[in-house]
Design a protein that fits this description.
Helix 1 (about 5-25) crosses helix 5 (about 85-130) and helix 4 (about 60-75) packs across helix 5. The chain has one domain (about 5-105). It has about 130 residues and is an all-alpha fold. The termini are far apart. The chain has helices spanning about 5-25, 30-45, 45-55, 60-75, 85-130.
C-alpha cells in the first residue's frame, strides 16, 4: 500500500477508535457501567483487578484496546507488512485517536462556556427588563 494511502487510512481508522473510546468512557449511555468500574478500580484488593476496571474509565487506556480490535478487524499495518507494521499502526492509531478526542473535548468545553455566557447575559437582560 502506498504511503499516502496508509496515511489516509490511519487518519480515517482513528475516527471510529476515538468515537468508541470516547463513548464508553464519557457518554451518558455507559454511565452506570463506568461508575461501577470506577468504584471497582478503587476498591479491589489486587492491582491487576484495579487496573482492569480502570481501563473502562480512561479514554487513553481504553483506546489501546479498541485499537487492537480494529487492527484485528482490518489487518491494517503501517510502513511494514509484518508484526512491526502492526506495532507501528497500533501506536500511531492510538495517538491520532487521542488527538481527535482531545480536540472533541476542547470543542465541547468551548460550547459549554458559550452556553454559560449566553445564559448569564440572558439573565442580566431579564433582570434589567423587570426593573
Amino acid at each position: 500500500m502506498p504511503l499516502s494511502q496508509q496515511f489516509g487510512t490511519l487518519l480515517l481508522l482513528a475516527l471510529p477508535i476515538a468515537c468508541a473510546s470516547w463513548t464508553v468512557t464519557h457518554e451518558e449511555v455507559f454511565r452506570e457501567p463506568r461508575e461501577f468500574c470506577a468504584k471497582k478500580s478503587q476498591d479491589c484488593r489486587s492491582l491487576p483487578e484495579r487496573k482492569f476496571f480502570y481501563l473502562f474509565t480512561c479514554e487513553y487506556c481504553f483506546s489501546h484496546y479498541v485499537t487492537i480490535f480494529f487492527l484485528v478487524l482490518t489487518r491494517f499495518t503501517l510502513l511494514d507488512p509484518g508484526w512491526r507494521g502492526y506495532l507501528m499502526a497500533w501506536f500511531a492509531l492510538v495517538w491520532i485517536a487521542n488527538v481527535y478526542m482531545s480536540g472533541f473535548n476542547r470543542l465541547r468545553l468551548e460550547i459549554k462556556r458559550e452556553n454559560v455566557e449566553i445564559a448569564a447575559e440572558t439573565a442580566v437582560k431579564e433582570t434589567i427588563l423587570k426593573v
